[in-house]
Amino acid sequence: MKKRTFFAAACLGAACAAAVFSIVFFRPKAVRIACVGDSITWGAYLKNRSRECYPARLQQLLGNSYLVKNFGVNSATVQSSGDKPYREQPAFERSAAFSPNVVFLMLGTNDTKKGNWKDIDSFCRDYEKLIDFYLALPSSPRLYILTPPPLFSLEKDGAIRFAMHREYLNLEIALLKDIAEERNIPLIDIHEALLGQEQFFTLDGVHPDCGGAQLIAETVCREFRAFEQNFTDQPG
Q1: Over the chain, what is the mean pLDDT?
Q2: 65, 32 in Cβ contact below 8 A?
Q3: Helix or strand or coil: residue 87?
Q4: Spatial distance between the Cα atoms of 19 and 13, rounded to a whole number of angstroms
Q5: CA angle, corner 81, sides to 143 and 205, nearest 5?
Q6: In a 3-state reduction of DSSP, which class is residue 15?
Q7: Which terminus of the chain is more exposed, N or C, with fewer CB under 10 A?
Q8: Is 53:74 a contact under the CB 8 Å cutoff?
Q9: In angstroms, rounded to a whole number, what is the distance separating the alpha carbons of residues 198 and 201?
Q10: What is residue 11's predicted lDDT score, i.e. its pLDDT?
Q11: pLDDT digit string, tens, across residues 137-147
């Protein structure tokens, strides 16, 4: 009787060990998502930035099957001639070392500053260099272009804070849509989603509050799931 009990216990222990081994070593790995951007991605001025920024909200929406990391850098620019090029920031190297499966690229707001703007050709060249860099990573990520949010004026004279210019932003958005179409890159139009939503930009007209960050996350989540479903449904 004791031998039977011992044998049964041993079998049960082996089964449990096998189950744990299977869970640890054969469970699907979380899809790694790198959110590349400026202070809007980083979550500037948010009271609880680590929980209220759009990447954190996106993580909540997508769930544990995804690992979302915030690689936003305050004041970062696309253009290498800008006062803080993203490619020269430590977050740029960290975003690559993360080996992302997906990259959400939302940059361009700081390029509209009077002191940063050179011309649309310069912006185009440097933006495409960023695209090419991420697409060439060993992890072969799928890259998504996110248009920057709109700029709102809180001043009586109609000026936008930080010497940013709406006309340059409009040029960027038109260009990003062209790049997305020409290179068959998914585009998520954050600008369109937040157009007319001044109530989320009462901080300074440029940075969204927690409600605006939530809306960005919801837009990205919805469009991302739709795009990914489309890729899955394609033959081959």
Answers
A1: 90
A2: no
A3: helix
A4: 10
A5: 70
A6: helix
A7: C
A8: no
A9: 5
A10: 47
A11: 999 999 999 99
Report the distance separating Cα 80 and Cα 130, nearest Å.
Answer: 11
Cα(144)–Cα(96) distance, integer angstroms = 15
Residue identified by tokens 């890259």 is 143
End-to-end CA distance of the chain: 58
Residues facing 31 on adjacent strands: 66
165 burial type by CB count under 10 A (0-12 exposed, 13-18 middle, 19+ buried): middle
Contact 68, 59 (CB under 8 A): yes
pLDDT (tens digit, 9 = 90+) per residue, 3-55? 454 444 444 444 444 444 433 344 469 999 999 999 999 999 999 999 999 99
At position 125, the amino acid (one-letter code) is R
Give the distance from CA 135 to its chain's centroid.
15
C-alpha distance from residue 199 to each of 106, 136, 146 (Å): 21, 39, 21
